[in-house]
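Human: You know discrete backbone vocabularies at least as well as I do. Show me how you would write down a chain together with its backbone fold. No explanation is needed for now; the record alone will do.

Assistant:
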Amino acid sequence: MAKNKNLIYIAISLVVFIVLAFLYSTPVFSGKQLFQHDIVQYRGGAKELLDYRADTGNETYWSDSMFGGMPTYQMGSQFKGDIIKKIDSNLNFLPRPVNYLFLLFAGFFFLGMVAVRNWKYALLGATFFGLSTYFYIIIAAGHNGKVNTIEYFAPLLAGIILVYIRKQYIWGFIATTLFMGLQIAANHPQMTYYLFLALGFLFLSELVRAIQKKIPMKHFLISSGIIAASCAIGVGMNSQRIMANSEYIKETVRGKQILTNDSHTSGETGLDKTSILMWSYGKLETLNLFIPRLMGGGSQEPEAKEMMNRVQELIQENVGSQAEMDRISKGFNGVTYWGDQPGTSGPAYQGAVVCFLALLGFFFAWKKYRYWILGASILTVLLAWGSNFMPLSDFFIDYVPFYSKFRAPSSILVVVELLFPLIAIIGIYRFFTDEKLTEEYKKKILIYVSGGTLGFLLILLLFGKSLLGFYTDGEKTYFPPFLLDYLSEERFKLFRIDAIKALLYVAITAAVLFMTMKKKLSQNIALIIIGAVSLFDLWTVNKRYLNDENYVDKVFAENPFQTESSDLLAEKVQGNPNLESIVANVNVNKTLETIAERDKTHYRVFNNILGTFSETNTSYFKSSIGGYHAVKLRRYDDVINEYFQVMDSVKVPNILNLLNAKYWVMGGPDKPQAMPNAKANGNAWFVSDLKFVNTPDEEIKSIGVIDSKKTAVMAAEDKAYFTGKTVQADSTAFINLTKYQPNELEFKSQSKTPQLAVFSEIYYPHGWKMFVDEKEVPYIKADYLLRAVHVPAGTHNIRMVFEPEVIEKGKWLSLLCFGLFIALSAFGIFWTNKNKKKEQLVEKTV
């Protein structure tokens, strides 16, 4: 009866999560969809991939839509036999973002049930975790892969705890394997990596407990083996994805550096330190976990528009010279945020109630949770500081495997956002239910922690203006007193509002705990009050960053690249800043559409209006020189940095010709101009001269100055390719593209002499196969980033096709691992039930 009752409460809790998720996302009831910046960029960049899938029913693992061409492994490609991803899709059955919120709640509820085995505390913890502000910020931005990965943090941890602490080997194996597989399928390795840094502390904690003989060493070894096997199988179920990405990553900005210059060292792997540490959390900024607008919140808070208007008025009233205006501009980075990061969409707010209860949890929780959570929390906070704590950052970048592959260390705070709610509910559960905690001890800790917390808040409220200043060093240097005083006063007001709220929420929570301890409130009423206060706190803060303004009509969400202005569009834009960019880009989009419709051949477009390397409007209509992607191919990124950071009027056109930029879009958003580029090299061409150079640095510098239609720059180590081959000029020779698909191109060539054909296609050493008259031949890199092949004299058909072997190999390995998971799970359940029946039979016999 008790078991059935518990199941009813669990079912009710799941319904509560669905209701909460829908209440937060009410515009979905009217058919509106989220307008997410990164998803808009994805729709443009993935257009060729999606069209190919719709037209053929097949998948292309290469697309020419962005950056001259790149694999689609990080652009939404699908893999045959990818069962684990289908499970993920089925779990995300609700409309976006309801699906994300529901799984955040439900996943932590499972963890809470494992940790404290009480649905009330699990429900409370689920709201603590599921309403963490950072999640709503990344949902608004469109970081869907990131939040999809975070959804599976809590249930994966629950599976590991089932094995290590609950000794539920079979169910722990099933949960750990399943959610490990789902987390990898969500495809955000950075988030998974950060989680496992924290889980290392859990492993060490269990090892220490085994050494101290608090748990049997045999249990620790068995548990560790089960978890290792679970993780291996979970990873194995994603073999296609992992193998393809592992192959790809080696050739990207996350792989080995090729050049040697101020920011690169040939042979070193990963990003340069500047890129890795750019978004580092400030030491003081860490208090944003507790007070959301201590550092002004996000770069664009709701109050920012009014503040900006006042700043402009003050400047008009007080600034009398262009020199003074230029000086102000040097220090200006935003009106609200004044932290150490270049900018931010909002704070990593955890909630005043949650942080307060987490502090108590470090005193009240069982030691088997307390120490590893404390250690993991401290490490992740220190790593989040990034460039503000270089000894630790240097160590991790230089010595900890894979750490240098990731940027934006501030995002590691997701670990704290998982662990604080966990330690909070464990602590409050023991506070209310564990008789081993004496009333004297609870009273002492409660007085010290609540008194210290409230005292700290009072000090900040009374003396924060003078202690913190509320301005940056740059602002102090460049801003006149009238502007500095205004901004610091307004920022202090934002802080004061949130600090007073935090003080009130903590005071209520502390009072509830005292009254419950004194038997003046029941445990259930106390949990309801604490949950309601926390819910109100987080809900209201989150609405600053993800609210009704983030939703737009379905037609605009699914097609943000509008090409015609209309009264309907103008009407919809009013009051919704997310749609302003759609209106602003209409004329540019129309120009791109016109180019694509009038010239249906294969070529690329250089868009110099919207920000070449930070937009995918161009890619939506035609192949682009630029794009928007965090994991670009290394060679292409090198060319961007070498030539497009400083727009040399001679060298940049040479590079654009090399990349077959047949059209340039110039001018402004209101009056864009499409300029045909008659000098573009075309899809392929023959060269009669080979220039061999000794280093990659010479290669990349040469391509900007040579006549690339006649000369190809080759690496000295590739001379062996030409052994027994000659290249001779022939003014009548030609090579033309006869068929184009993103993963297969065909050319027809004719020449009287042997030639080197250079293709305006990006060199990628994995998966591309070259055929001359249907006979596979080796190809070579030319001009630092293009493909080339030797072509004998005569008439030939040349075909290149992208058929990565890792896809097929990975498919069978994925299916094998999934089958192993099902077989082991079924055997484990059968074995467990068999033993239970034996035990029941013995009991009846006795």
